Amino acid sequence: MPIERNWHSETVFAVLKGLESNESGLSAAEVGRRLQAYGPNVLPEKGAKPFWRIVLGQFISPLIYILVAAAVVSAVIGDLKDALFIAVVLLLNTIIGAYQEWQAEKSSQALKKLLSTQAHVERDGEVCEVSAEDVVPGDVIWLESGNRVPADTRLLSSQGLEVDESLLTGESIAGRKDSNWIGDSSATLADQQNMTFAGSLVSRGRAKGVVVATGSSTHVGQLALDVMGSGGGKPPLLERMERFTNYVAIGTLLAASGIGLLGGFLWGYTVVEAFFFVVA
Predict the structure, then answer these.
(1) What is the secondary structure of the chain as a DSSP string?
(2) Do both 278 and 154 map to the same domain?
(3) Which residue, of 41, 55, 144, 185, has the fewest CB within 10 Å?
């Protein structure tokens, strides 16, 4: 049963057919089968990184290696003033970096709470309240003001529905929804008027819809994967920054080596003097 489709560009009939569902909802037996096939409707998670690992991670950088080496050599030869100064710089860098990464970890943990709610689901023609974790693709759900949307949903009907999707779209104003709207397949999330997305908050109105994606298959699920770095690699911007840092470190080492050699041959610097001249 295909789940990843441009549901917003299809008719209600095509959506229900594609999900092998109907407006009266799934049967209890079918829900059980789909829950086993797709898993519970929860966001992906991994164990929180220990704080000591976050701190140690701040030292994994070629430029940091150079400063650590300079601090150690300074302490060994008795130049405690320089050693202390470098140590303070390293400490400040560690505190700032560790704090920022710790905040990111807290953000990824906070995302898990978005789907920890109850959902009004129509099954076998009757509406019942279940945990959002038990919602499956093809389930028919009812939404009203104050509800947290439990999963990515294609609207079947709506009455004055407005939904706050700022988590995904960045829009500060709740967007109006219309179950009769059908858009182009390339429409952005903010423009998909016949869709509501997991984690969004219903501001006004009522609606009935069919679930098209749950858990990590939802848009907020993909966001959680990106935040936690468990979605198949690091973000492109971070990769480019790390490559740039490595290039700078290599260039610095090459330039430093050349300057150190010149200092030794032209000005008669000792190895220690040349080292600290280069670091400076």
Answers:
(1) ---SS-GGGS-HHHHHHHTT--TT-B-HHHHHHHHHHH--S-----PPPPHHHHHHHTT-SHHHHHHHHHHHHHHHTT-HHHHHHHHHHHHHHHHHHHHHHHHHHHHHHHHGGGG-SEEEEEETTEEEEEEGGG--TT-EEEEETTPBP-SEEEEEEEEEEEEE-HHHH--SSPEE--TT----TT--GGG-TTEE-TT-EEEEEEEEEEEEE-GGGSHHHHHHHHHHT-SSS--HHHHHHHHHHHHHHHHHHHHHHHHHHHHHHHS---HHHHHHHHH-
(2) no
(3) 185
Q: Is residue 12 part of a domain?
A: yes
Within a 10 A sphere around the Cβ of 95, how many other Cβ atoms? 12
Report pLDDT for 127: 94
Identity of residue 93 = N
> Do 152 and 242 have their domain in common?
no
Number of structural domains the chain divides into: 2
Q: In the chain, which stretches have pLDDT less than 70?
A: 1-4, 45-48, 104-116, 227-242, 256, 259-260, 262-280
Does residue 208 share a domain with residue 131?
Answer: yes
pLDDT digits (tens, 9 = 90+) for 129-159: 999 999 999 999 999 999 999 999 999 999 9
Q: pLDDT tens across 158-202, in order?
A: 999 999 998 888 887 889 999 999 989 889 998 999 999 998 999
State whether 188 and 254 are in the same domain: no
Domain interval for residue 27: 7-44+119-224
Pair (13, 125) in one structural domain: yes
CB 199 within 8 A of CB 168: yes
Residues 209 and 241 in one domain: no
CATH number of the domain encompassing residue 184: 2.70.150.10
